[in-house]
Amino acid sequence: MKELWEAYCADKAGRRIAKNMAASGRIVLPFFGHMKPEGITIKVCRAYIAKRSALGRKNGSIRTEMNQLRTALLWAEKARLITKAPAMEMPPASTPKERHLTRAEFDALLSAASTPHLVLYLHLAIATAGRNAAILELTWDRVNFERDLIYLGMKDALRPRKGRATVPMTDTVRAALFAAKEGARTDHVIEWAGEPVKSVRTALGKAAARAKIVGLSPHVLRHSAAVWMAEDGASMSEIATYLGHSDDKITQRVYAKLSPTHLRRASQALEVGRPRLRTVG
């Protein structure tokens, strides 16, 4: 298995997934590395889950590790390095986090941001509902001022990367981007001191502390954007497209309950105390 894992990482060299898997390989490979693909059974998966759980790892982290293993195996099958990727059992998915920012909290956070790169990051995070990596990797050639579009993924990609949608600019983010472009010193939209920014966690944490906001992370910003859209009555398909979901099943599960129009039409059939017209046909 170790050879397949490394071959997959080599094939994806230069992409974030290769870097992530190089790090998680130090955890996954001591357990699975010596095995042949056909030796990775449901029983073996359960043993790995139990071992990681005993060390205090949460289901979400364990699923990420095992999904990376499954990704490498499916790639190996497609590349015809193995005949068939084995079936794998995963731990149950974690309950989605409900934490999101109110508009007032976001305004306070924006006011507390002390650096231009964080201010621009916050505007982009809310206006695009993009993933943290997508925003940090955004380059100016994917910001189209003529069409007012932001390409979070590669413009000519045949298969968009997960969570990398093409979204319209809001007026606010357009103004912020236009001002930032004037002083840009790199190809990356989010930059500081003439270098692309690799992480905003420190700056974000300090701004959150000043604004007295707890439980904040880059993902909370993405979740907040989706919540705002749902609360404003946007359709689940629109929200799914914004989030870069392949379909709206996940979107429905997490955000439908927040929409003021959710099940509203169906509920009209349950009204009592008023006459109903019968349909003849």
Low-confidence regions: none
CATH evolutionary superfamily of the largest domain: Intergrase catalytic core
Average pLDDT level: 88
How helix-rich are the residues, as a percent range? 40-55%
Supply the number of helical segments. 13
Count of beta strands: 5
* Net shape: globular
The Rg value, from CA coordinates, equals: 23 Å
Number of domains: 2
**CATH topology type of the largest domain:** hpI Integrase, Chain A
CATH top level class name of the largest domain: Mainly Alpha
- Identify the strand order in the major beta sheet: 1-2-3
Distance between the termini: 64 Å
Q: Helix and strand string, N-terminal first? A: HHHHHHHEEEHEEHHHHH
Task: Describe the main β-sheet briefly.
Answer: 3 strands, antiparallel
What oligomeric state do the depicted chains represent? single chain
Query: Helix- and strand-based class?
Result: mainly alpha
CATH architectural arrangement of the largest domain: Orthogonal Bundle
Strand content: under 5%
Gist of the model:
Belongs to the 'phage' integrase family. The chain is mostly helical.
Structure write-up:
The protein is mainly alpha-helical and 281 residues long. The protein has two domains: 2-78; 103-258, hpI Integrase, Chain A, CATH 1.10.443. Helices cover 51% and strands 4% of the residues. Helix 11 crosses helix 12 (249-255). The radius of gyration is 23 Å and the shape is globular. Belongs to the 'phage' integrase family.
